[in-house]
Design goal:
14-stranded antiparallel barrel
Amino acid sequence: MNLFLYLIFSVNSCYFLELPSGVMSSGLGGVVSIVDEGLAVFHNPALMQETKINFTLSRWFYNTNLAGLGGTYKNYSFGLNYLNYGIIQGYDEFGIPTNRFAPYDLTVAGAIRIGSFGFDIKVFQERIDSVSLFALCGGIGSYFKSDRFLIGSKIDNFGREFTYHQSTPISIVNGIRFTLTDSFDLFLEVKAPEIELKGGLLYWYQNIKIFTGIKYTAPLPEVKNFSTADLNLSGGILIKLEEYEIGYSFVWTKFSLAHQFSIVFNLPDT
């Protein structure tokens, strides 16, 4: 058990912060800085355009489930994410089975917009068996918009966890959305310091949005050959029915297939 916990926490603690939230974000290749689906606190806190409530349920790889709730109201946004990794059998250093446990991550977040900038703060707990991490982190986002394009930027996850005294994984994201025609939008985004290139295409037809995306994750420097494991392909659909939208998206990798389902309530501004 001690070896398992050491590997989990030393290799990439708090990696769940990098998982995209929302059907549209996931289906467009994982873009976050240039989308608005009621999850601004997890995407770009500067993009709070409408009053929305979003509930998303994701079935990720290897029996991993992510449930998310978020909303925006005027210049404020909130969010709650619960990531469950399923049941895992524990073993001691001799390979003898011990207890079974269910690891999970729980994140509570809030954000505020001031002009063209947004600021978010996240508090989370990551628990594996009897070991827990507690952390506090935050970020800032901004945007610039014209008739034909939207530019979004985000620096997120500045902070620290207080159990092992590790820094949370900072991410720097820049994206641009082009309005190609009245029916097509093109999304492009790059993330650092772990390099990810993302692209997506969105088609509008009356009350239906159809979208597809691709994400390329640069391999480690010691890996010389290209692999399909570095690519994620995705797609999805959103259907608007009066004041709410229902949506589905998928993410395909070489190893597995993930599914997301969501319902978004569009509420009148008061």
